[in-house]
Design a protein that fits this description.
Elements (H helix, E strand, L loop, with lengths): L3 H11 L4 H8 L3 H8 L7 H11 L3 H6 L16 H10 L3 H15 L12 H15 L1
């Protein structure tokens, strides 16, 4: 059964990227990337998200292999202006901002099939606060 590292290597090689190139795009060290790909290190959600964004791959695919790898070249991440403002107000890093966006997509946006209203800055701040209360 392929591991997270195997799937990262698979996509990296399909995109004809070297470990150096991917490490630079993901802002991690080449050695750390090598250890992940070779199954010698576990990867935190923050670093997994960085790698996924650098590869334009889904975290779901990297973790579970449940998304078709041919889907790896999807659209770049677009951060809504309201989330950008909220992230600035909360002093969130890029990775934390993306995690908040993913949480919104995974939990809030998929709750119902009907169109939901756009999140305001205060909505993003409240979501961040709620996540912090649950996950510390």
């Amino acid at each position: 059964m392929p591991s997270v590292g195997d799937r990262i290597r698979e996509i990296r090689e399909a995109q004809k990227l070297t470990q150096d190139q991917l490490a630079e795009k993901a802002d991690i060290s080449k050695g750390f990337l090598s250890e992940i790909e070779n199954g010698k290190r576990n990867v935190s959600s923050e670093y997994l998200l960085r790698v996924a964004n650098a590869l334009c791959a889904s975290v779901d695919y990297l973790l579970r292999g449940t998304t078709d790898v041919s889907n790896a070249n999807k659209e770049p991440v677009v951060i809504p202006p309201e989330l950008s403002d909220a992230a600035q107000r909360l002093n969130l890093s890029y990775a934390e901002t993306i995690e908040l966006l993913e949480a919104h997509r995974s939990v809030i946006a998929r709750r119902s099939m009907k169109q939901s209203k756009p999140f305001s800055i205060d909505d993003w701040v409240a979501l961040h606060k709620a996540i912090k209360q649950v996950f510390g």
